[in-house]
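Researcher: Last one for today. Full complex below.
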Amino acid sequence: MALILALDFGGTKLAAAIANLGSSEWLRYERRLSPANTDAKTDLEIMRSLIYSLLQNIKPTAIGVSFGGPVDAVIGTVRLSHHVAGWENIPLKKLLEQEFGVLASVDNDANVAALGEHRFGAGQGYDSLFYITISTGIGGGWILNGKPWRGASGMAGEIGHIVVDPAGPICLCGKQGCVERLASGPYMAQDVRENLLKEPVQLRGHQGKILRELVNNNLDLITGKVVSEAAAKGDERAIIILQRSAWALGIAIGNAANLINPQRFILGGSVTKSGENWWNVVQKTARETALPEIDFDIVSAALGDDAPLWGAVALAESGL
Amino acid sequence: MALILALDFGGTKLAAAIANLGSSEWLRYERRLSPANTDAKTDLEIMRSLIYSLLQNIKPTAIGVSFGGPVDAVIGTVRLSHHVAGWENIPLKKLLEQEFGVLASVDNDANVAALGEHRFGAGQGYDSLFYITISTGIGGGWILNGKPWRGASGMAGEIGHIVVDPAGPICLCGKQGCVERLASGPYMAQDVRENLLKEPVQLRGHQGKILRELVNNNLDLITGKVVSEAAAKGDERAIIILQRSAWALGIAIGNAANLINPQRFILGGSVTKSGENWWNVVQKTARETALPEIDFDIVSAALGDDAPLWGAVALAESGL
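Model: Here's the assembly. Have a good evening.
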């Protein structure tokens, strides 16, 4: 029986699992948080220990890898990680092939998750789709003609850095009004926090009551999740920031529909758990931005946190 | 010798030509303006007369058709024309196949022009490209993996209606700040005209001197071309409007590069003849909008007004 080894280098966590070819259940599964201030070497060592614990002297038939950062998928070399030091130009495919003696396929997490949803999740039966993860960062992966579309230099899918509001706030990338700047969890948290700090002292604890209570008045604890919770409880400022997130993503999806006309958009990541209002604004804005003749739907990802691992299985399969 | 018949239903003009398979020179070529207030039936009759005049009793091997409006390319049926009445649901492929007894392939002008540039023009040797026409309207056609990408319902490439400035002026489509609203010839002319009309009477003929002279003070004669000419002669308001056109297109190209990462963008259409400044702003804005890791270039179309006809040849070839 052919055995697939799936690996997920996630930036803050590492996961590995094995499954029989064609199966949609794991045989065994291991998951570990990366240590604080980890580096590429440490993460690779932890992953090796996970793999040997999983395999127990069995040899896999093929290896698929999801990596949290830009990858040259053709040669399987990591370009860099935005979260972990020391990953520049690490030939991950080659390292794994040398150690385990079988074919290894490596791609970035958004492309791999797109493949996972296409093969095992919300994209089954869809020939063209765009998977978008809205979390700490925002990225995406295309399936066109039933296959990953990676772009001429493997950089397609960077929906987080398309500009939707040229008068908007400045993003880390230097531009104004990127989708990621408006819609990602950490930026929503930052904007709510700064907004609270700007309040006149005599009003503090009044207007921001709901938010302050959720974090025991420690504004550093505000996250994207806290913003969603405060919005659900009726905090006006959180509602505005959350709606702006959904609006920015909706414009981006509508623009992508006009440009590429895929059948389906699949949304995953923590921000998609922000509730019905967030989803309604995304749906409505995307529908209004796309031309009326352009059909598409927008659905929730089905595989959750396991999308990269299942995608890694699909990636390994496609290499066989 | 296999003979290709290429047809271009352009909205205001009709063109037909024949070429030997594999050749890049026309054997014969006919071109006619559509009559004022023409309709589908009249344009079809004129096109038939052009075809019979070209063919002179020879039978073509295949027919390729470029149509100026949305087409269902799979069944070769026109959806509608935005310029000429009566085209709704005309089965153009079927009509031509019945009359001439050979395979006919039909697609919209932007897709066909993209194919033409890919096969015979500025896109030769490029596996992924986006052709954009910036003229009365703004549209585009994708080549991905060396083949046309039309989208799930044949509507891909609508770059004219992606939103780049949500606070911008209202487009005919109902949205604010579409690329077409900011960058197309007629809208540039409209904005310059309205801007001139808003001037206090005592200033008329002073600030807008260059523009007014170019149209003998008849503001209805202002076109996109006039705006370019006035900008070249130093008219400040024309310069601002023309730069805004280039800026909007640059944002759209940068966003498309982030999403799809094609090797090359090819720009055609009358507005691309607006001079070096326009091109510089397009290039600069697109480069700044795309992530630094994303490589692409932006070049001028090579086939000019004949791009749809040469594309029709390539379309007919690909059907053989």
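The CA atoms of residues 1 and 235 of chain A lie 55 Å apart. Chain A has a mean pLDDT of 94.
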